[in-house]
Amino acid sequence: MFSFFQKKYFLQDQLNGFVDIHNHILPGIDDGAPDVDASVKLIEGFEKMGITSFISTPHIMNDYYPNTPGSIAKAQDNLQKHLKSLGKEVKIKTAAEYMMDQAFLELLEKERLLCLKENLVLVEMSYFQPPINLNEILFKLQTAQYKPVLAHPERYGFFHSKSLSKYEDLKTRGCYFQLNILSLAGHYGKSIQDIAFRLLENKMIDFLGTDTHQIRHLEKLSTATVTKKQLELLLPVINRTKETFSFSGIFSKS
């Protein structure tokens, strides 16, 4: 007999040993942690979930957060020194979340991008509309031997459709998809939650990340639940993220 009271599973219980590949924990360089104290509070929240390894991904967004490898390295060094003084054993590698715009194309021609691992680079786009030259950007990324990892594809409302054809097109153009775990908890709204699970059901999601900016995101994550069926869809992606960005595979080289 069908029951409306299906057993729920806490998402955080599945994240022990997880490497968070999308977050904004570095202090004072974007819309994430404003200072080292806030960074530490975020990291302590992650520790309660069993997460102690991070690839930090501050925004590189020309008009708002014109970060550089130098400014990011400085913020990381500041945080690592503070964590060391507190006796915290936390692993942090730096990468970035690049806004795909004209400035990004110019950057691509001038310098080496900060990657999640090897040639995997985290990219995003405006929530209002895709870049008019999106296909050109993806082509140039791959011509330069990068593999684009699209951050939170479920959050781009202009891609939502019954057929998922726009997502399929991005896949044929070589995009990997990184889902925000908070989307599964309905944090960004019902339509985004629905698309997130549809992408999972269609095996289109490659990696997971938290995209944590502030404590309230961790508070939401700590109470988020999924059904058994949803968990079965999630576990392979959780494991793939762990394996791809494992301590031995990433941090030993940083």
UniProtKB/TrEMBL annotation:
Transmembrane segments: none annotated. InterPro entries: Caps_polysacc_synth_CpsB/CapC, Pol/histidinol_Pase-like. GO terms for molecular function: manganese ion binding; protein tyrosine phosphatase activity. The keyword Chloroplast does not apply. Coiled coil: none annotated. The keyword Hydrolase applies. Its EC number is 3.1.3.48. Keywords: Hydrolase. It catalyses: O-phospho-L-tyrosyl-[protein] + H2O = L-tyrosyl-[protein] + phosphate. It is an enzyme of class 3 (hydrolase). Pfam families: CpsB_CapC. Belongs to the metallo-dependent hydrolases superfamily. CpsB/CapC family. PANTHER family: TYROSINE-PROTEIN PHOSPHATASE YWQE (PTHR39181). This is protein-tyrosine-phosphatase. The lineage of its organism: Bacteria, Pseudomonadati, Bacteroidota, Flavobacteriia, Flavobacteriales.
